[in-house]
Records
---
Amino acid sequence: MIRLPAKSWRNALFVRLIITNLVVILPIILLGVYLYNWSYANASNEISKNTTAQLSYYLEDLDHQIEWLEIQQYDILQDNDLNKLAVTWNLMDNADKKASIDYLLHRFTSIKNSSVYIKDIYVHVRTIQKTISSNNGVDDFNQLSFNYFHNEVDKKEARLILYDHSLHLSAAKYGGKEGDPVFIVQIELNMDKLRESLQQISVYPESGSFLVSNKMGYTLASNGDTSDVLQSSVIGALHAEENTLITQIGDKKYHLDKAYSEPLGLSVITYLPESVVKKPLKGFNNWAWIFALTSCCAIVIYALSTYKFVHKPLLLLVQSFRKMEGGALNIHIDHEKKDEFGYLYNRFNQMIKKLQTLIDQDFKQTMMMQKAELKQLQSQIKPHFLYNSFFILNSLAKTGDLERVQLFTNMLGEYYRFITRNGEDNVLLAEESRHSGMYTEIQKLRFSRRIKVEFDELPESMERIRVPRLIIQPIIENAYEHSLEKMTNEGLLRVSFGMNEEEARIIVENNGDHPITDEQIEALQARLDSKGESGEMTGMINIHRRIVLTYGEGSGLFLSKSELNGLKVEIRIKLEGAGVIV
C-alpha cells in the first residue's frame, strides 16, 4: 500500500496526475452530447462531400465515354466502304455487295465490343432501303427510326436522344446541300450497363442513384424496385439550389446529393437514409459515460506505476534513439533489472555495435567498389578507337585540310582529357553531354556517309544535375560497335533528353538492319540487372550499378525497343536525395 506524508500530499505526483486527468475527463463527459451532434454533422458533411465528388467524376467519365462513342460514330460516317455502298449499290455485283456488308458488320461488331455502353449500332441506308445492325445483320429499311432520328438530328437540341425508352446517339450523312440524308448512324446505349454503373456509386446500404434528364423527361434508377414516392421526391430535388440537402420522404429522412453535367444535359442524384449515417453513433452516449468512469478508475490505479515502470524507461530509450538519429553511435544504456526494458536496452546496445560494424565493413566497401568501378571504366580506352582516330588524322593530313586537322586534334585532345582526368567522380550533366557530343562528332568523321546522328540540345533545367562521369558516351560507343558499324544500310543514332518532377531521362537509341525482338531485350535487361559480369555488357553493367548506388532504386539503365527498330537505352536519374541538383 502506498502512503503519502500528510503535509506533502498536495505536491505528490500521484495526486497531481489524478487531478490533471480528471480535468481532462470531465470536459469530455460534459461535451459528450455536443460531440455526438458534431460527429453526426461531420459524418454527414463528409459523406456528402465524397458523394458529390464521386458523382462529378462519374459524369465526367460518362462524358468521356460519350465523346469516344461520338468519335466512333463520326468514323462510321466517313467510312469509304459505307459511302461507296450507299452510292454505288446498283452498280455492284453480288460478291462486292456481300463483301461490303460483311466488312461493315465486322467493323460495327468491333466498335460495339469496344465499349460496354453500346447495346447496338444501326445504319439506316435510305438509298438501298436497308438497315444494317451489329446485332441483327441486314434487315429491311426502318423508315420509322430513320424519320425520327432525322428530325432529332436536324433539331440539334441535345447530344443524347430518347427513343423507345433508351438513350441513343445519332448522326446523318448528306449527299448534297438539300434533301434527305443518304444514311443515318444510330448508336443505342446499353441501359442495363448504365444501371450497373449507377449501382456502383451507391455503396451504402439502402442507398440508390438516379440518372435524370429534364429536357427529355427521362429517369433511370439504379434499383428497379424504387417506389414512385421516393423517385418523385428525389427528382424534385433537381429544382433545389443546393447540391446537398436533407428531406423527409414518407416516414424517413434522406440525404440527397446531386451533380449536373452541362455537356450531357444529365443530372445524377443519390439518396441515403439518415439512419445509415447515425447507425455508427447509436451507442455513443452510453459508451462515453462508461469510458469516463473506467478511465477515472484506471487513472487512479495505473498513474504512478505507469510513470515509474513504463514512462521513464521508455523516455530513456526514446532519447537514446534520437541521439542515434542525430549521428551519435557511442551510446550505451545501463539497466540493472532483468525485465522487458532490460532486454530492449541490451538489444539496443547490440544494435549500435552492429550498426557501427556494418558502416565500417559494408558501406565503406560499397563506396570503395563504386570508386574502383569508375576508375576501371575510365581505363577502358578502346585501342581500335585510338587507331581509327590516327587513321582519320592521317587521311586529313594527306588531303591537306589543315583546318579540319586542327579541329579534329582539338576534339581528340578534349575527349581524352575528359576520360583520363583525375578529380571528383561526379560532373555536371552539361559537361557529360558536351563530352558525348564531341565523341559523336569524332565518329561522324569516320561514318559521315553511312551513319546519321541526331543529338538534341540539353535542356537548361538539366544542365546543373550532377551525374557520375562517363555514363552516356560508353552507351553511344556500344551502339556504334555492336550495331551501327555493322549495318549495310544507313544507320541512325539519336540522343534526347527529358525531365519531370520525379526524374531526369537521357535516351540513346539507334536503328538496325533487323528489328530487335522483345525476347532479346528481356535477355539483355536480365544480364544488365544480374550481379555478375559478362563480356560486352560489362561497361553497361558498370554504368547501371553506379547510377543505382548513387541515386537508389528506380534509377539506372532501362532497355526497350526503339521506334527506329533498334535498341533504346534510357538512363533514369531519380531527383530525390541530396546532391542530385546543384
---
Amino acid sequence: MTDTPQQVSHPVPDEERTWWKESVVYQIYPRSFADSDGDGIGDIPGIIDRLDHVADLGVDVIWLNPVYESPQRDNGYDISDYRSIHHEYGTMADWEELLAQVHDRDMRLVMDLVVNHTSVDHEWFQRSRRGDPEYEDYYIWREGDADGDPPNNWESFFGGSAWAYDEVREAYYLHLYDESQPDLNWRNPAVRRDIFDMMAWWLEKGIDGFRMDVINLLSKAPGLPDGDPDGDWVGAEHFVDGPRILDYLEAMDERVLSNYDILTVGEMPRLTVETAREYAGEGGPLDMAFHFQHTKLDYDGDERWSVGDWDLPELKEITRRWHDGLSDEGWNALYWENHDQPRVVSRYGDPEEYRRESATLLGTFMLTRSGTPYVYQGQELGMTNANWESMETLADVDARNRAQELMETEGYESFEEIADVVGYRSRDNARTPMQWDDSEHAGFTDGEPWLPVNTNYEQVNVAAAQEGDSVTEYYRSLIDLRTEHDAFVYGTYDDLYPDHDRLAAYTQTLEFPDGGVSERMLSVLNFSGSTETVDLPTTVENADLLLSNYDRDAIAPETDHEPYEARIFRLE
C-alpha cells in the first residue's frame, strides 16, 4: 500500500511569489557613475567597468536613468530620439554589451520611460511646430488669450508659466517641466501608437521593465481650465491623475506590458494610497508606484524650497498607512534617495558626527520592510549633500531657475542669501560623481568632471569601504538577510511604538496560510543622536540578534540603544 504524500504548507505559496517583489533594485545615474574616456561625463563603458561593485552588493535589478539621445537640458529627461543612445554615453553596441553583462551576472535591467514630454529637438516637435499635418497634434498647442498672454495660469514644476510661445507656429505649447520639454498630447491616438511601438521595441531587445517618469501626468483636463492660484503647483488638479489616465495606462498594459514578464514602477506626483491601488492594485496596469510623502517631511509646510524640522512619528504614520493600504491589494516601492532627492543622511541623519551610523540605520529602515527596495548609487557608501557656493556651480536647471526666481521676486540680492536652502534642495546633491577612491576626482574620471566631486571623497569612497565595518558592508549584510528571510519581503508590518519621537520598533511577521507563525523579525532603530532606552512589549527571551550597526554580540532588544543604532532580531 502506497502512502499518500502529505501536503506541505508554505508561508508564501508559489502563485503569490514574483521575482520583482523579491528583488533589490540599484539605480544608476549614468552621467555621474563612471567615466571611461576622460571627458568628465559618465558613460556606458564606465558602467560596464564598474558592474562588479553593483553585483557584489547582492542586488537583483539595475534601473538605468535615461541614456537616450538628448540635448541634455535636463540631463537626459529631454529626449530627442527614443531609439538612439546619446553620444556622450556611448553607442547602441555599448548599451547591448551592458545588457549582456548585466544578464551574465544574473541581474536584470530596467530602463527609464519618459513619455509625458520630449525634447524640443525631437523630430515630432520640429514637425509639429511647422504644422506638418501628420504631427501638428502631437503636442498641446493653444492660442494666447485676448491680450496675447498664455492660455491659462498653469505653472511649470520648474517655476514660471507652463506655457512657452513658439515663434515658428505662432502659438503656445504646454510644458509642465522645463520649456525645452513640451508635453505630448496623449489624446492623439497616433501619439499612443508611437509610444507603445517604441516600448515594445526596447522590450524585444531584452530589457526587464520600465521605471515610468511622472506617468500620472499624461492626461490633461479637456478645455485646459484655470488652476487654483493658491495651490502649491497651480493647475495640478487638472493634470495630476487626469480624467483619462487609467484608460491610457490600461491600453499600455494591454498593448505592451502584459506581453512580457517585467517590472513596472510609476513615478507619480501627489500619489495617495487610494489612487495607488487603482494603478498598482489587483488587476492594475502597473506593478508598483513611487510616492513622495516621506520625502516631504523636512519641508517647512508645503513649500519644497524651504527647510523645516521633521518628525519621526509622522514618518512612522506614513509607513504604516502605505503598508496597511497596499498589503492586500498592491505593492510598495521603498526608497530614500534617487536622482531627484538630496542625500538622505544629510536630511534625516547626521552627516558629520554619526554619518556611518545614521546611513546604516536609514538603510535598515528601508531594507527590513515588505516592498521592493531601491538603492540609489552612493547610498551604499553613505554619500552626503555637497556644498554649493555659487549659482555657477549648480547644473540642476530646477535649482538654477528657483534661485533666479527667489532673487527676482523675494528681494534677495545675492545667491549667498539663499545658498542654504537652494543647496540643501538641489538635485545636484544626488548627481555629484560616484566616489570610487581617494585619487583626484574620486576615481570617477581622468578629466574634469561635469559636476564637482563632493569634498569628502577622500574618506567616503568605494575603495575605503572594502576595509573595516563600512556602510557598504552593512548594506551587503542587509541584502543577504532580506534574501534569506521571506518575512522581510512578504511579512506583515506592525509598529510597536508609533508615537515615540526618537525610536522606531517594529515587527515583520510571516504566517502560514492555514495559521501559525513562520517567522517574526524585530527591528529596533534609534533615530536620535543620544542614548535611548525602551521596554519592548513583545517576547524577547529567545531573540537572536541577526545584525547591528554597532559591534554587538547577542544582546537583548530592550537594553540601551546608542545614537543611531540599528538592531535586527529574529523572535521566532
---
Amino acid sequence: MFQIMPGSNAKFPLPIAKDPDVGSNSLKDYKLSSNYVSAELVLNKALDREKQATVKLVLTGVDGGKPPKSGALNIIIKVMDINDNNPVFIQPLYKVKLKENVSAGTKVLSVFASDLDEGINSEIVYSFVDHGKKQNLFTIIPETGEIVVKGHIDFEENAAIELRVRARDRGNSPKILIEVVDENDNAPEIVMTPLLEIVKEDTKPGTAVALVTVSDKDGGKNGIVHCALKGLFPFKLETSYNNHYSLVVDGPLDRESVSLYNITITAADEGTPPLSSSTLITVHISDVNDNAPHFPAPVINAFLRENGQAGGLVTRVSADDSDTGENAALSYSLLDSSSSSVPITTLININSLSGEIFSLQSFNHEEMKRFQFQVMATDSGVPPLRSNATVNVFILDENDNSPVILPSYSEPGSFNSENIPYSAEAGYFVAKIRAVDADSGYNALLSYHLTEPKGTNLFRIGSSTGEIRTKRRMSDNDLKTHPLLITVSDNGEPSLSATMSMDVVVVESLDDIKTSFREVPVKEESFSDLNLYLLIAIVSVSVIFLLSLVGLIAAKCYRTDGSFSRYSAPVISTHPDGSWSFSKSTQQYDVCFSSDTIKSDVVVFPSTFPLPDAELISINEGDTFNRTQSLPSTTKVR
C-alpha cells in the first residue's frame, strides 16, 4: 500500500515479480490496471482527493511462454488531503423578510458553507464583507454563520439591505438580501409655506394664503396621507397634486370681528392603527377702511353757564372707529346749522384732534338760550369715511338780573300813595305790587316782603302775589298815614332784590277816597312803524288774555279737590298798565291757584321738565305747588 500526495511525476518502487522458468518462459512484462503506472509506478496527472480519496490498482506480471502465465498484485493508494478547495456556500443568494423595529439579538438567518477538504482544511470561519454603515445593523457569529440584529432597523432608512458573507479561506461570498417589512411607525410630516404674511379683510374668496405639503416615510397604505382643517374657518384646503395642498380663502373676512385665525391642519395616514400629526398656522387679518366713524348718540346736549369767559370748554365730542391704524385716526370739524342766523364759527371753535369745543365769546341767557350745530368726524382712510352728530348747547341761567318793579309804582319821580277807608274790614285789598325778573327758572321766582312801622300790625302782603291787604280792622290808636317799604327778592343764589316805598292813608269814608291819576310826562316822538307793531301786539295779547281768562275760570269751576290743575293752552302774562308777556310754545304745565286766582300771579313750569329737589312751595301763606326742578325758562301769569 502506498500513500501518494497529490501531484504529478512522483515515482514509487514496486515489488519484483519472480518466474522460475527460464528463457522465453521467464518474466517478460508488467501490466498495471488502469494503466496509471508502468513497472515503475509513475503519477502521470494530479490526483484529486475530493474526487477519489483511494486508488486501487492491480499489478499483473506476464511471462513470455505459450501460453503465457501471469501473476497479480493489488496496490491500494490513499490520496492525502491538501487545502486545495475553497469553501462553497450552499446557495449563492439568500432572501429574508424582517420587520422593522425588531429588537437587537433577533436572529435573521444562518448561512452555511461547505469545504471538500477535510480535517483542519475544512474548518470555516464566517464574516461580513465590509459593508460600511450596514455593519452597525447586523452581526454574524463566526463559527456558525448565524446573522442576528445588532442595531435599529428602520424601513424608512433602508427598505432593503444587501449583505455579503465570506468564509475565512477566501471562499466565494454569497449575497444576502434582507427585505425589511414596513411597520406604521412614522406619523405624517407637514411642511407649511406661507404665501401671504398678512391677509386683507377684503381679500376675495379663492385667494391662496399658504402652500401645504404632507409626506409619510412609511410605505404602502402606511404612507397614504389625507389632510384636513380642524375647526370652522373661512378657509379651505384645495388639492394641487399628490400630497400638495393650497390653503385658500373660502368666505368673507372681517377684521373687526376676528383679527387673526389660528388654523390647525391635521394629516392622518391609512395605517393600522392610523397615525396623525398637526401643525398650526396663524393668519393675520389686516384692516381696510370699511367702517365710518360712529358717535355714541346722534344728538349731544351740552350745558354752558351764561357770563362765562371766552375760551371756556363747552363740551367734548368723541367718536370711535372700528377700524385700526390710520383708518381709525379721526379729525373733527364744525358744520353750520342751516337754521342758524349767526355763523357758528363766531360762537365756538373745535380742536380737530381732541374734539374739545371752546366758546369764542361770553353768552347771555336772556339773549340766547340755545344754539345748535353739527360736528363731523372724518377718518384718515383712503377713501376717507365720515359721520355727523348734532350738538345742542343750552345756555344756563345765572342770577344776574335783579327784580324790576313794574309801573305804575316804578314810574320815575312818582309818589306812591294809596287811600283806604277807616271802616275797612280785615283782608281789604290795598294795592298790588308787580315785578318781573329777566332771569329764568328759580332765579326768576319772586317773593314779596313788607316792612311796616314798628309797633303796628295792620297790613300783610302775599309773598307770591304782591297783594297788600289789611290784617285787621282799624282802631283809634292806629296812625292815619302808614309808610310801607316793600322788598321784592328773587330765588337765586345769591338772592337779588328791589325795594319801593308806599304811604297808605286812612280816610274816614269811601266818599273821601278820590282816585288820582299819575301823570307821566310824555315825550313827543313821531309815530313810527315800531309803535304801530307794538300797538297791534298789545291789542292781540289783550284779546288772547281775555280768552285765556275765561278758560282759567272754567277750569276753576271744574276743580273739585282744590289741588293742581293741568291745561295745555298758551300762557299769557299781562298787567293792567299794558305790559305783557307770553310763552313761545304751547306746553303742558303744573299750575297752582290760590283762592283769588284771577288776581294772583302764577309761576308756571313745564311738566315735561322735572326739577331736582321736590318740595312744596307756599304761595299766599297757604296755597302750595310742587317744586320739582329748575328750568331753562319760566312763564309768569298774572
